[in-house]
Design goal:
five-stranded antiparallel beta sheet; DUF4374 domain-containing protein; about 450 residues; five-stranded mixed beta sheet; mainly beta
Length: about 450
């Protein structure tokens, strides 16, 4: 049964957003330092650039998210100037917005993150420049997955989004008392996962399920448990939903977090789709560490299989493969330390084009430490050949911070990225994944302490 959900807070937020759109329309007609109303022809695609404004500290992104749309033609024009922090549309969110876009770039989706209005799903038409027009009223998912849900757009023809949440509880077996001392025995930590699917077209809840799961008995009794979930993705058949998982460990004797432990094989939760029933956990024998990613989509279906990045792997991040049998393909060994010739590669975000070649944002142990954290890089990846090469045509410096990077706009075999250190100007770059050619595009105007988080 489908349910349409509204409340006073989301209605108020919707009205506020509508007023902001009206204000933006009036402002957008004025030529300001080369920033004018954007247009595109039918064969072109909108490229939406997003910037995360500084809150308290440079690069924290907690001051709000602004978006500005430019045609792909203008995105590749180095004479074009884009200033989202000055003239962009403010996307409602207490912290950095979690954005998704339709495949053609004409629609933008957002679920507000944290705060009193967190967990509200918004949908906008992308009309160029700062023109983002809200469609309908927002839908709240907060009562299902909280006010700070992890969510993603499933690649099913722009039909469905999925949001997830997890909470944990320790299971203790009370064996009574011995000599007036309570004889409690730790059994395991259970994870309660909540999953809700959203119709992107109709802006309504499709399905909601929650399940209580735990790891196998051998590892569970040692204190291992699933602590975070994120980045759902559909298999090629469309009958299974894979959810990335982070595994942590606690000391069974104290129930305190254990920070010195053996990293388990990378794990993924598998659910029947669209029912969201029958949870199971699959484990990689190749990769170790986590598969939940952070703020960018972490797994993609390609050529009948799902390719998934992992993080915090002691041997460096891998691209892992889940086959059509819904199990990890342990014959596919793609180690990014080996491919890139670095130590401690860590996938921050990535996105393949339809040809199986991808652009990947990463850091490694040799990254410099900048004002907001470790320096980031972009690489061109070939999923079939299992190769990765740093894109040296893009400039790098210590303050080029990609930990919060979210989006890569795809147009055919081209992938668009943003390059700008925290608080400094930069450019859009278009990468032809087939030829490897890199085009330096439009200029990005930055403001103090802020950074760009991608294109959509």
């Amino acid at each position: 049964m489908k349910k349409q959900l509204f409340n006073l807070k989301t209605l108020t937020l919707a009205l506020s957003s509508l007023l902001l759109v009206v204000g933006c329309k009036e402002d957008n007609d004025i030529d300001k330092e080369g920033i004018t109303t954007e247009t595109k022809d039918a064969s072109d695609r909108w490229i939406t650039v997003a910037g995360a404004k500084m809150g308290s500290n440079p690069g924290d992104g907690n001051g709000g998210t602004l978006v500005y749309a430019v045609s792909s033609k203008n995105a590749k024009d180095p004479n074009k100037v884009i200033a989202p922090f000055d003239y962009g549309y403010v996307v409602p969110s207490n912290r950095t917005a979690r954005l998704q876009a339709s495949e053609d770039g004409n629609t933008l989706f957002n679920i507000t993150y944290a705060g009193d209005t967190g967990g509200s799903f918004f949908k906008y038409t992308v009309d160029g420049g700062q023109e983002f027009n809200q469609i309908g009223l927002p839908v709240t998912v907060a009562q299902y997955v909280g006010t700070a849900p992890r969510w993603i757009k499933l690649f099913d023809g722009d039909n469905t989004g999925a949001a997830v949440y997890v909470s944990t509880e320790d299971v203790i077996n009370d064996n009574g008392t011995i000599d007036d001392v309570t004889d409690d025995v730790y059994v395991k930590t259970e994870s309660k996962i909540a999953v809700v699917t959203i119709s992107l077209a109709n802006q309504e809840i499709i399905e909601f399920k929650d399940h209580t799961i735990s790891l196998d008995d051998i590892n569970a009794v040692k204190g291992y448990y699933i602590s975070r979930i994120d980045m759902p993705v559909l298999n090629a058949a469309g009958d299974k939903l894979y959810i990335g998982a982070q595994v942590r460990k606690k000391d069974p004797t104290t129930l305190e977090r254990d920070n010195d432990y053996d990293i388990l094989g990378t794990k993924t939760i598998v659910l029947d789709y669209p029912s969201l029933d029958n949870p199971s956990i699959i484990t990689s024998a190749i990769g170790h560490g986590n598969s939940n990613g952070y703020r960018s989509i972490n797994a993609f279906e390609y050529n009948g299989d799902v390719y998934q990045a992992n993080q915090s792997d002691p041997e460096g991040s891998h691209i892992l493969k889940i086959g059509a049998n819904n199990q990890y393909d342990n014959s596919y060994d793609f180690n990014l330390d080996t491919a890139l010739g670095v130590t401690g590669a860590y996938v921050l975000a990535w996105r393949p084009a339809g040809n199986g070649k991808a652009v990947l944002a990463y850091r490694h142990e040799g990254s410099e430490t900048g004002v907001a954290g470790a320096q980031g890089f972009f690489a061109l990846v070939d999923l079939n050949a299992k190769t990765a090469t740093t894109i040296n045509e893009i400039p790098y410096e210590a303050d080029f911070y990609l930990f919060q990077y979210q989006g890569f706009a795809v147009k055919g075999n081209e992938i668009f990225v943003t390059q700008a250190p925290v608080g400094k100007d930069g450019n859009i770059y278009a990468i032809d994944t087939e030829t490897g050619a890199v085009t330096k595009g439009a200029q990005l105007k930055n403001v103090e302490g802020s950074h760009f988080i991608g294109t959509w």
